[in-house]
TrEMBL record:
Keywords: Cell membrane, Lipoprotein, Membrane, Palmitate, Signal. Gene3D superfamilies: Periplasmic binding protein-like II (3.40.190.10). This is Extracellular solute-binding protein. It comes from Cohnella zeiphila. PROSITE patterns: PROKAR_LIPOPROTEIN. It comes from the Bacteria. InterPro entries: Bact_solute-bd_prot1 (IPR050490), SBP (IPR006059). The keyword Cell membrane applies. Residues 1-24 form the signal peptide. The lineage of its organism: Bacteria, Bacillati, Bacillota, Bacilli, Bacillales. Pfam families: SBP_bac_1 (PF01547). Residues 31-55 are annotated as: Disordered.
Length: 535
């Protein structure tokens, strides 16, 4: 990877910043200089907790944001209302539901009607290179070195994050969250209803065949005891979550941000045409056909899924955090991945530390890039990351006996569900926000149940997790063109195979179509990227 002089000195800049902040003092009254750039308070430059860096004069920024099913309107979120008071920076939000966000994002780039920044934006590596090299997204490395002591410190501690975010031209066009909590990097933990297991005299399943039998028992034997056949044996938010949750049982991982396995010799394999993928689809089709899998998985939206999750009618599901089913958490236990027909037993989807690439970017029309970066950096510090996830102490959370923040009971016991209640306060439910996730600010997902679930999964984690690569412009354009058609066809075919609208007699035809779409070239591009980054 070619490294520009700016990036080459960034590591040194981080060390200099760290040494300077060690002797910083004073309060939080620093203001903008005459040229309009914001020199945040000394405590915010400490690279640790610090206060939010503010602006002397009121500033308005426009931001385009993705709103998950658990989130309320951004303008009404307590976190942003309070943050405006701290910083004197007002944000005019255009927050779009997740189902329509990609279309909206594409539209603003195509029309060049850009916001000042993108928040929780899911900007893909392809988009970062395309819009970064074309000048629509602003390079961030100088701003980070100058205005973001918290992010700089994390880059120093976790150099793999800097590598994952740096484009081949040496620039950083988009930031990710930074996840140093293992619990949060396993986003699709398997949870099973232990009360139902106990009631029916069943053991936790350890193989795919045993799982079939357990799910059939959940379907047929009224384990919720209401006299109705209304149980949902296995629930998933969507097909992607289902496939990601069970793929490890068929030897399939999700490396480099795609449907990729990487073996011990560094050989990259895109598995969309692999026989093990066919085996998995046939298994999922059986679940769907026998109504062991919720048959609304294709059409349901996230609020509907969350409602089902908290209905007391679900036997098994894949999800990261216990907050989404807080009131029912005693019913469930984190279980292990089942062993598949070929002896595979692993967690197929584990995120890198730079988990959600493209969570934040600054556009070229932004008149206040320094202030914007300082505004963001607070969420990557000790104090700011707690504020971002929990809101205001005494109002929405309290500090427990263990010294960690916990949401107050009125939020945890909200009739809408804790996850939905939290999503009215902060955008973090649903994932993908620009923030630092660590063991000091994540009591909701790092509960004793979550910790126990993660510990049970440790033996089944991949040895290494590789982030999605950032490619040079030419390779990026080629991969984008190839994947656009391949991904659409593969996703449509996946759904058809699972629900039975496409016979497995057509598998060879499906594979041949992928070959004609140059799936082998996609694999070659990823192999070359892997070799440059990791060999």
């Amino acid at each position: 990877m070619q490294v520009s002089p700016k990036i080459a000195i960034l590591g040194a800049a981080l060390l200099v910043a760290a040494s300077l902040t060690g002797c910083a003092g004073g309060g939080g009254n620093n203001s903008n200089s005459d040229n309009g750039s914001s020199a945040g308070p000394a405590s915010a430059s400490s690279g640790s907790s610090g206060e939010a860096a503010g602006s002397k004069q009121p500033i308005t920024l426009t931001m385009l944001a993705q709103r998950s099913g658990q989130n309320g309107p951004y303008k009404d979120m307590l976190v942003f209302q309070e943050y405006e008071k701290k910083t004197n920076i007002h944000v005019e939000w255009t927050d779009v539901p997740a189902s329509g966000f990609a279309e909206k994002k594409n539209l603003v780039f195509a029309s060049n009607e850009l916001p000042d920044a993108f928040f929780k934006a899911g900007i893909t590596p392809t988009e970062a290179i395309k819009y970064g090299t074309s000048g629509m997204l602003m390079p961030l490395e100088d701003l980070i070195a100058k205005d973001a002591p918290n992010i700089s410190k994390l880059f120093e501690q976790y150099p793999e994050v800097l590598k994952a975010l740096t484009a081949p031209d040496g620039h950083i066009y988009a930031l990710s969250d930074i996840v140093t909590l293992d619990n949060a990097r396993i986003g699709l933990k398997p949870w099973i209803n232990r009360q139902w297991l106990q009631k029916l005299g069943l053991k936790e399943p350890t193989t795919t065949d045993e799982l079939l039998n357990v799910l059939r028992a959940f379907r047929d034997n009224d384990p919720n005891g209401n006299g109705q056949k209304d149980e949902i044996p296995i629930l998933a938010a969507d097909l992607g979550s289902l496939v990601g949750g069970i793929s490890g049982s068929f030897g399939l991982q999700n490396q480099m941000g795609y449907h990729i396995n990487v073996d011990d010799e560094g050989k990259v394999k895109v598995w969309l045409a692999d026989d093990r993928y066919k085996q998995m689809l046939m298994y999922l089709h059986q679940l769907y056909q026998e109504k062991l899998l919720d048959n609304e998985i294709i059409s349901q939206d996230q609020p509907t899924w969350l409602s089902k999750l908290n209905s007391g009618k679900v036997g098994m599901f894949y999800i990261q955090e216990g907050a989404a089913f807080e009131k029912l958490k005693d019913q469930y236990i984190g279980t292990i991945p089942v062993k598949g027909p070929n002896g595979d037993q692993m967690v197929g989807s584990v995120a890198p530390i730079a988990r959600s690439f493209g969570a934040f970017a600054i556009s070229s029309v932004n008149k206040y890039p320094d202030e914007t970066m300082k505004w963001l950096d607070y969420f990557y510090g000790d104090e700011g990351s707690i504020f971002f996830r929990f809101g205001v102490e005494g109002k929405t959370y309290h500090i427990g006996d263990d010294g960690l923040p916990y949401f107050n009971d009125d939020i945890l016991n909200d009739p809408r569900g804790a996850g939905n209640a939290e999503g009215q306060i902060t955008p973090y439910p649903g994932g993908g926000s620009p923030e630092w996730i660590n063991d000091k600010n994540s009591s909701g997902i790092n509960s004793p149940e979550g910790i126990a679930a993660t510990e049970r999964l440790q033996p089944y984690l991949p040895k290494k997790v590789y982030a999605a690569p950032l490619l040079d412009a030419s390779s990026n354009d080629r991969l984008d063109n190839l994947r656009r058609d391949i991904d659409t066809y593969a996703d449509e075919s996946q759904a058809k195979f699972i629900v039975g609208n496409l016979s497995f007699d057509k598998w060879d035809e499906y594979v041949n179509t992928l070959k004609k779409m140059h799936l082998d070239e996609v694999e070659q591009i990823y192999q070359q990227a892997f070799d440059k980054l990791y060999k």
